Amino acid sequence: MTRTDVTTTRERLLTVADEMLAEKGIRATTMSAVAERAGVSRAWLYRLFPDKNALVGAALIRLVETTWERNHAELEEIEGFESRLVAGVQIGRRAYDDPGATLMRLRSGEPEEFAAAIGVGVAGLVPDLAAFWHRYLVAAVADGEIHPDTDVDEAAEWVARVLISLGSVPGNTIDADDPRALRRHFRRYVLPALRIAPAD
Question: CA-CA distance, 195 to 191, in Å (whole number)?
Fold first, then answer.
């Protein structure tokens, strides 16, 4: 088998693994079922992925990268940190209804299996989302939208926690599906905190 054939076979296996993870979850996705649906011998599957965690982990990482790339492309088209925050909540809420929902379901429904497959370094939602928002905080500092002494790493983690809360935890005073309500919340609480000099 040529290098191109190996790459094509690997991609086909990952695509089938993605499909089965979306349909059945991690526990019910088996190596033999993936090989059979992909039309690949089990020997070739095990040559490319030595065990289930290796296969599922590679599929999940590919899904994470695809989801982040799509979300970055959307946010790059939006001007201003405030507008990006509003869009970020909407993207997060939409994640339950699009292919990104697979990651959310697996992470929350099968956390141990998810962590074992994807690895501890990628398993945490807050660190993932903080890393995702880091570039937009850097841009907000450069554009003078938030204080120049902002600790971007710390602020990115805080923003991630705020967005997770707004996007996934219902409340009595904020309609997370209403962009005007989100904008008002960010203007009253989040942005003022980021615009003042950080306290020691």
Answer: 6
Cα–Cα distance for residue pair 24/34, rounded to 1 Å: 12
Count of positions (residues) in the chain: 200
**What's the DSSP call for residue 178?**
-
DSSP state of 186: I
Helix (H) or strand (E) segment spanning residue 108: helix 101-109
Burial class (CB in 10 A: 0-12, 13-18, 19+), 48: middle
Exposed / middle / buried, residue 37 (Cβ in 10 Å: 0-12, 13-18, 19+)? middle
Instruction: Confirm whether pTM is higher than 0.70.
Output: no
pLDDT for the residue 122: 45
158, two tokens: 């805080």
Contact 92, 163 (CB under 8 A): yes
Nearest to residue 93, comparing CAs of 196, 8, 174? Answer: 174
CA atoms of 25 and 59, how far apart (whole Å): 12
Name the one residue in this structure whose structure tokens are 């649906």: 37
* 60-97 pLDDT, tens digit each: 878 777 777 888 999 999 999 999 999 999 887 776 55
